[in-house]
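URGENT: need a sanity check before tomorrow's submission.

F., can you look over the LysR family transcriptional regulator record below? I want to be sure the sequence and structure line up before it goes out.
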Amino acid sequence: MSVSERLAALGVDMPAVVPPVASYIPAKRHGDLVYTSGQLPMVQGALPATGKVGESEGLVAPADAKTYARQCALNAIAAAAALVGGVDNLTGVLKLTGFVASVPDFTGQPGVINGASEFLGEVFGETGAHARSAVGVPVLPLDSPVEVEVIFTVA
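Structure tokens as predicted:
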């Protein structure tokens, strides 16, 4: 099954590429690899939530942050696909790096970034298996709770 067929089966529409919020490009190709810039969980030009991830009231819940990590991965696919002429020219995922803006006592960053990893596995199947880092940070651009960057392989 192709990437576009998997996305359709999942009921996922490809979003527009998120415009950069500073001086960079959304994705860059080098040989058979595409590197994405950090992707925020933007939906129609806006963040669905802001703030730190943690277990206490008033913080972004880890389950919500996991959903936002999934959106970051979708935005990364959109950025890479726009660069290479469509999602079906993306052949797999090499590496994912996820950042979680979290309170100091939160240690669930891997579970949050699973939102991106699991989604990439659904979209790319076996070629979606990837190396990964999940990093806790004090703050992210625009006060986003999560940010993801992906290295894709290309046909």
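My own read: DSSP finds three helices and five strands in the chain. The chain has a mean pLDDT of 97. If you see anything odd, call me.
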